Structures are given as C-alpha cells and as structure tokens.
C-alpha cells in the first residue's frame, strides 16, 4: 500500500523520472530495480534489472542484483516459508524426531559421529558444521563457525560440505553473500562420486542436493544463463539420485509442458515418486490430480498425508478439499466421466509456452541419413546438414582447446552463429559445455561493446545473434537487448525473427507481428518468418480468416518436408475451432486433420514420430464423428503402462544390483558382501484369527510412515528372484495394481533358507501377508514390506502361480525357462530379444561383470 511518507516511494519516483529522461542509460533502469527490490517487489525489480543488463551486459553489479531478486522471488513463489522441511530445528530436535519416526536412538547416532572422526575426518567436520548451524547440546548456534567447518570438509573433497557451504554462501550466513561462489561450490559437489567413499552402497550426501540446486539456478537464471532445458537435465539427474524436490519440480514441468513435451502420465509418476520421498508439496499436488481423475480414495489418502507432513497450505484448505470431495462423490458415474473428460481437455490447453524444449532426438547422429536425403534433393535435409557442419566445428573447438585466443573465440562465434542462421534446432549444446559456451559468448560480447561501441562489424553481429539465441528463456532481457541490435543491423532478418518469437512468449503478439513483418520486408519469401506470422495472427484472434490465409502462404512457399508443415495444418484446424461454430467448421477441421496426417508421411526420419500438442485438441472431434480409421477400442495394458514407473524401475534396479553382488560373492572367493539389519522400532506378527481381515494394497501403505497395518492382508506376486537368505530373504513384490515394493522376510529357520528361495519364494508365486509392516529404513529412509513373523505369510496354491514369468515385462510363458542363475548370465527366462536387451541393461549386469575376479568389500544395510 502506497505511503507518501515512505522515502522509498519518493526514491522510486525519482528513479523512474531519471529513466524516462534517458531510457538507454542502464543505470536508470538499475536504480528503479533497486528501489523495487527494497520494496520487496522483486518481479518488477527483475524486469528493470534485465533491461539494465540488456543495455550493458558488462556490469557485474547488475548481475548480482538480478541474482538476488531471482532467488528471493523463487523462494516466495515456492512458498518456502510454509515448507515444513525448511523450519530451523536444533540437532536435538532432529534426533528426537528420528527416534519417534524410525526408532533411531539419538545416543547411537552421536556415538557413530564420534567414531567416524578417525576414519572420515571430513564427515566429522560436516557434523560439527551442522551442530554450529543448528545448535546442539553445549553448542551455541554460530553460522561463522558452521561455515568454517563446512569449508574444511569441502577442501577435503566432501560433497556434503560443499553443498552446505554453498547454502550459507547463497544466504550470506557466516560468510559474505556471493551467488557466483555458491554456484561454483554446487558444481563441485555435483561432480563428486555418487557412492560414499567409505560407506559402500550408501549415497554420497550432497551430490543429489547440489544437482537439484543447479536445476533451480538454471530454471531461474541465477548466476547462469536461464536455460530450462539445462534445468531439466539437472532435475533429472537429481531425481535419478534420490532427490524428492527435483522429482517434484521435474514432474511439474512435464505437467505444464515447460521445456519438455507435455506428458501428464510422466508428470503424475514423478509427483508420486516425490511424494513417496516425503515431499509435502508433491503430496498435495498429487492429491489434487487424483481428485480430478475421480480416484477419491487415493486423493483423500494423499491429502491426509500432505497435512500430516506439515504442508500448511493443505492444512488451511482441508475443509474446502473435503467439501469438493464429498460433492463429487454425490455425482453419478456418467457425470463424473464427463467432468473427468473436461478436466483432461483443460489440462491439455494449459501447456505453458517455453522457447527451449528438451529434444529426444540428437540430430548429430542422424547426419548420414540426412546427407542421403539431401542428395535426393531435400532442401530441409541440406539445410540441416549445413547447420550441423557449422555446429560440429564449434563443438570440436571446445573439445580440442581448453582455452581460446581472441582469434579462436571469434572463429567459434562465427561457426555457432552460422548454425543459428541456418537452423537453430540442431544447436543442442551438451550440458557439460553449456557454461563454457556462455562464458565465451559473454567475453566476446563484452569486448565488442567496449571496443566497437556503435560501429557495426561481422563479429559484433554474430555474437549478438548467439547471445540472443541462447537467452531466449529470459524474455524481458532479450526483448530489451534486441532493440539496439535491430537498429544497428537493420538488414538482418534474424534479429527481427527472434524479436517476433520473444514477443510471442511474452504474450504480446501484436508487437511480435510487427517485428515479423519488418523481417518480411527484407525477405518476403522467408518461410520461417511466414510461419511465425501465421502463428502470431492466430494468437491475436482478431481475424481467423487472415491467419488461415497466412498459413496457406507458408504452405505454398515452404518445402514439403519442412518440420512445421503438419503443424500448420493442425493449427489451421484450431483457427476454425476458434473462429467458427462447430457445425460450420467440422468439415474443414476433418479435412485439415487428414492433410496433416498425410504431411507427416513426408517428414524426414529425424522428425518422426511426429509430435504435436494440437492433435490432442482435434482428435476427439474426429473420433466423435467416427471418421478415424481403426477406432475400435484397444484394451489398456495396465502392466505395460507401469513398467516405466520411476519408483518401480528404482526398486528393481536396486534389487538386481544387490543380487548381482550376492552372485559375485558366490562365484568370487575374494568378494565379500556384508549385510546387517537394524532392529525395527516395532515388530510385526500374524493375527490370532483370519476372520475380519480387510484387503489392502501397496499404494494404501503410507511410504513415509513406519507402521504395522494390523487387521489387514496384502496380496502380492513375487516378480524378482532371491539368491540369498542371510540375514533375510530379499524379494520384489507386485500387487493387483502393478505397484511394486521391496520385501524382506525374517524369522525363518536359517537351515531352510535355500529351500525357501529355490522352491517357495520364486518368481511368479503369489502370497498373502497378514498384518503387513511397512518399515521405513533407518539408514536409507526407504520403505520396505518387512515380515518378522514367518507364519504371517500364506502362500497361494501352485495353480495360481504365473508360470515362466518374463524377467523384463513380467508376462507369463516366457519362451525360455531359466535355472537359478542363467537368466542373469545369458538373459534366458525372457519372452523375446527386446526383453533380453532391456533386462541386461536395467540389471547393469553382464557375464563379465558377474564373474570377473574383483576383490571388493561392500557394506549394505538392510532394514
């Protein structure tokens, strides 16, 4: 609220007046941004800082202010102050919480840290750093001391020390605030080994956390060039290495179609993975998704879990959620199906626009195929090959030279700019090279700004083009940056093209259209400009007939294998959907849909299978008219759908790695696997009576809570073999929903172990588990179905067993039947060659690896 007496508002008015008097002076925009930041208006501050930075990218003070506002805005947008994981707790409170949840004795933890001082001094330094950061018994909170211990650990190569020092450096706690130094520390932490150097089999804490933090920095553009594709790369790495927050962020990007192809199924799977890893934000989002899918039981379960986890937003809105749930439960099945269809359609329409999309295609590997098509006369293939030639020269320079001379820098910029001029999509810069490419471009741009001023030159034009192409994710910055570029190089269509695209992303289609038209005055038949002109006219929505004519112009000019030809047909259909009533537009929509499908057949192999989000809007109408061929319903293979579930993949891979080590012990006398078990907080036992037991599934077991489900019975199928029984039998089980979890069986006579794994607990066998216990591991915090009372397992009859189950897709009657270890050694027990290859890849096992004479001492703690 405006306060006339507040000096900050007077300062803001003065700064704006100075900016308006001299709009091309960077300091005017910078001062406006500083005042907005002081007023906690960081979104406005970022816009002013980006304008200032575009006018003079050489000023480090602008980058520092921009970094700070982006960090603050990210924390505010993520509602960090409501995230229970970020509440400050003392060491004593943390240990007491662990004892309450998992039965971990606080004194045992303290004794462990005392013991590791000799064997792992850097780990001991990290522990001391945490004591000083959080406060502990006889230790007062002292950020400066915490930073010293984290720095000491970091200097010894400790990833956790690097990560925690980066956290403190980012916030200026105990050390000078320095976002660039924090970035370097995070990069160093992310480069460390994934496995702990001493505790074999245990993750190296700090690596996944740093990878997630790097994803956030590239997503927001903090101390780095904003690049959503690189953010996806880091989020995926962190997710693969166990990060819950990264899985949540990546899942949200897939739901929104932000820098990735929109994929609701994959987004939901990633959110479920994050929720299983105790992310309270993911729990709430997952509950809302399940509610929209009419899965009321699981929606309520996950909403309750979000509340229990401390999600303040969920707690505040519980009554509203309950009312919505109860209202939907009163609806008929027909009404619910209609609501679900509408919600799905709305979700498809809500894809967010981003200039960079992670491509599953590497155009470099398609070079030879493209060359063949080019020789047959394909203009598009010839252009792609030419762009790849320039791009390859640029990348080869990075590979061959650790540092560039000025002349080499300019050669690199020229090759990269030529690639962008010919075809931008092939310039897929590897993430490992991303930072160096940005640094080279910035160095050359700074040099050109200082040396050339207003003088035009080829290198200045080239580097500006590279800078603009790489910063498309920062729409405001690029919009401001391109103004002087267009003035300085009025005959370059590329600056007008990028400006048109950037304004489209900024939801300013009129401004974008003006720039595209300026480019067309220079090159009237440039089909890239013609396509974007049509797109912008469609977004303006003033005259859909004009937009349709613009698409038709593009179709007349562009080569038939241009990658946007099918999309043009589909977007024309969208124009009819928005511009006409359905009864008038239907014939045109069907015709354009068919033409788009025919155009897909003319696409180059590298663009197939063709992807278009517009098909999702058009195809329901075509299906409704019954005009699509082969419209008979195909049964949904739920098992096949679940094969790519990230949690299932993780469970199976970890199991196979564990059993691989067991086989190494069996075939290698020098290899030893030491397995230990930590006593559980509670003990599972069978029921006195089977009467009244209720059925329960794996998804109903809370993966964040250590709990015995008394009065319930869990029915599952064994889908992975066991090869050891000391101190427990390790299995992977699957329920009727094709959800899976690991299972550990204790309490059996040890002399029966070999018989049990060879004859009873075999792949394909089905069992009932009475009073199942979902044990949360004290060491790895991962859920496991644990059986302590051997009599609580009731095996189903042999007739219920899935015979010859494939070790990859888990179908019955695999063509080959495996003996105890054959399927690990040669892939037998698999139903087809594709499954054999996938199995060996997922297991990360080959006969060489299993039988190689490796002497290794590994430690794996099982719960």
UniProtKB/TrEMBL annotation:
Pfam families: Sel1, TPR_2
InterPro entries in alphabetical order: Mitotic_Regulator, Sel1-like, TPR-like_helical_dom_sf, TPR_2, TPR_rpt
UniProt keyword list: Repeat, TPR repeat
Residues in TPR repeats: 26-59
Stored PANTHER family: ACTIVATOR OF C KINASE PROTEIN 1-RELATED (PTHR43628), CHITIN SYNTHASE REGULATORY FACTOR 2-RELATED (PTHR43628:SF1)
Name the UniProt record assigns to this protein: Tetratricopeptide repeat protein
Species of the source: Didymodactylos carnosus
